[in-house]
Amino acid sequence: MFLSKIFTSFTFRFLVGYVAWLSVSVFMVLGVIYAFIAYDSFSDVHRSVNQELDELSAAYLSGGVESADTFIREHSGPERLIRFFYFIGDENRQRITGSLEQWPATETYRDGWLGFDLQDALSTIKDPVNTEFIARIKTLPSGEQVLVARHYADILTSTKLVAGALIQSMVVTIILGTLGGAVATALSLRQIERINKTVRHIMSGDFSERIDGKGSRGDLRQLSININQMLDRIEVLMNGVRQVSDNIAHDLRTPLTRLRNRLSELYNETACPDAQGEVAALIEEADGLLGTFSALLRITQVESGNRRSGFADIDLCTLVSDVIELYEPLAQDKDQQLETGMAKVGAFHGDRNLLFQAVANLVDNAIKYTPEGGRVFVGLSVEPAAFKISVADSGVGIPAGDKEKVFQRFFRVESSRGKQPGNGLGLSLVQAVVRLHEGEISLEDNHPGLRVVIRLPRDTTPVV
Amino acid sequence: MRILLIEDDNSVADYIIKGLKESGYQVEHAADGKSGLVKATTEEFDALIVDRMLPNVDGLTIIQTLRASNNNTPALILSALGEVDDRVKGLKAGGDDYLTKPFAFAELLARIEVVLRRQETGSAVTRLKVADLEMDLLAHKVTRGGVVFNLQPREYKLLEYLMRHAGQVVTRTMLLENVWDYHFDPQTNVIDVHISRLRQKIDKGFDQPLLNTVRGAGYMLDVPQ
């Protein structure tokens, strides 16, 4: 889970790209270094061979075979760091003297360089060297040909070694770079995950929360600070909106109170039974209006998410049982079977009054929309990640096309409009309450009827 | 009984004053928080009715200030903010009850009477009696004229609340808050159904109905005049 998060994260991909780019750069730099090293050793070889050749020629010219032999003996000792091989032949390359038995079978390279493999040429020196030598020849004015050869394999080996070391260090760089990238990603992911967690929490409505930027430094800290400042600003704006809605509540509900109270005064003062009935109907109208108005305000308040301060650990089992107990007589009056399936569940962190309201609204709806003699089922069960409350009925159900719409404010299914009392706010409120608790609500077909399922996440303990 | 009303909306205030006076209370009125606080601290009252949103000093601050100086005059908070949070805040601040606007006057009256009565009853009661209806709180037994009733736990609780407030109007929200212990807004007349079931048990077959409906307000358990 966390691993796949690392590999898909932007940071990791960025770092992998960076490692790739770095590897190419390092490769180029190492290539240049290699070229320098190689050039240096080759030019050293060239210089030394040329020098030996000149010296041997000079020795031969001044002192003949004897002084050449002396030179060769002096320069072929085992104490010499670099081993040279010498050969002096006549114009037909027949041996006059030298440390080689015969003229080797050479191949000619550019700039007058010769190369050969020396096994048969080195009859006197039992050397296991079986590799390439390079040589240079010089034709003396008298016609003799002087050849100086040098063991070339060690140079090749050392340059190969250098190249190998360079390639290996490249591979190690890539591996370490990628590993380091993964570790760095994991670290930054943890930081970002913390920010995400807080942001999710805030989205679910707890606006008082802020991101703790203490652990992070630099840009992440700056990001935390900026997000926090943005949240402060949003909170100020939201409080402004809430202030306005509070004022509307205050300013509109107070005159509504007056209206309602005057009507009830009128009711008490009127002696005429006809007028009383009329006023009673008016009071009912006013109460309905007020009910709709407060339901709307309540939804707004729940949705504004400032309700988490009412949260406490509650027992859902007791809560759902209380709803059932409250509504059972209503179902019995309609000859309905009210069945229950209750599981013992652990404590849930939430607002008991709002949850009671939500479940009550669902049970109320179920009883209302199920014909006499029907069945209503209320269940509470535990799932791995959630507490599941389901309210099912054998009523008319909701047409598939309307399932999304029933959560909209004031929406009522066409068939129930005018037939059943209601303001079309019940399910909107349920949804708002469920969202406040970070839960999910879904409408399913009960064949026949409707099944409403609420899933409340089992771990809603706020991040401390 | 003297009641102090701290309310800035004159029309609401007039209405409450008129209603309370008709019910036999003496009412003092303060139109803003500051003068209300001064009156509440300098004079003696039996109860306070305090609006939450007030100019100068808000309602909760008034009650907190009074409680901090050991003034325990029962207080009923009035508010247009009818949300649970606010309700909890109001009760935490030291209010004895919380009423959301808009309210029927009967609701206010019922609650004021309960708040005043709460102040009076100190000693623990073991028996409740209304006419020939008797409740033994220790034995959990309810009888009327020698007939023993078999009540469900909730019916018992409902009847107990009604009997404790016999002669007083109790509203549907008061019953939900105190008998069911949930503060919510039922969409249907679900309380009426429970009341009629209780009525079936305690009043059926008796000449004198004790559990009466008060139109536009709630219910009252009493011997009708």
UniProtKB/TrEMBL annotation, chain A:
Pfam families: HAMP (PF00672), HATPase_c (PF02518). Residues 186-239 form the HAMP domain. Its EC number is 2.7.13.3. The keyword Kinase applies. InterPro entries: HAMP_dom (IPR003660), HATPase_C_sf (IPR036890), HATPase_dom (IPR003594), His_kinase_dom (IPR005467), HisK_dim/P_dom (IPR003661), HisK_dim/P_sf (IPR036097), Sig_transdc_His_kin-like_C (IPR004358), TCS_sensor_his_kinase (IPR050428). PROSITE patterns: HAMP, HIS_KIN. It is found in: Membrane. Residues 247-460 form the Histidine kinase domain. One of its GO terms (molecular function) is phosphorelay sensor kinase activity. It catalyses: ATP + protein L-histidine = ADP + protein N-phospho-L-histidine. The chain crosses the membrane at residues 12-37, 166-187. SUPFAM superfamilies: ATPase domain of HSP90 chaperone/DNA topoisomerase II/histidine kinase (SSF55874), Homodimeric domain of signal transducing histidine kinase (SSF47384). It is an enzyme of class 2 (transferase). Its main location: membrane. Keywords: Kinase, Membrane, Phosphoprotein, Transferase, Transmembrane, Transmembrane helix, Two-component regulatory system. GO terms for cellular component: plasma membrane. This is histidine kinase.
Automatic annotation (TrEMBL), chain B:
GO terms for cellular component: cytosol; protein-DNA complex. This is Response regulator transcription factor. Keywords: DNA-binding, Phosphoprotein, Transcription, Transcription regulation, Two-component regulatory system. GO terms for molecular function: phosphorelay response regulator activity; transcription cis-regulatory region binding. Residues 2-116 form the Response regulatory domain. It comes from Spongiibacter pelagi. The modification 4-aspartylphosphate is found at D51. Residues 125-223 form the OmpR/PhoB-type domain. Residues 125-223 bind DNA. GO terms for biological process: regulation of DNA-templated transcription. SUPFAM superfamilies: C-terminal effector domain of the bipartite response regulators (SSF46894), CheY-like (SSF52172).
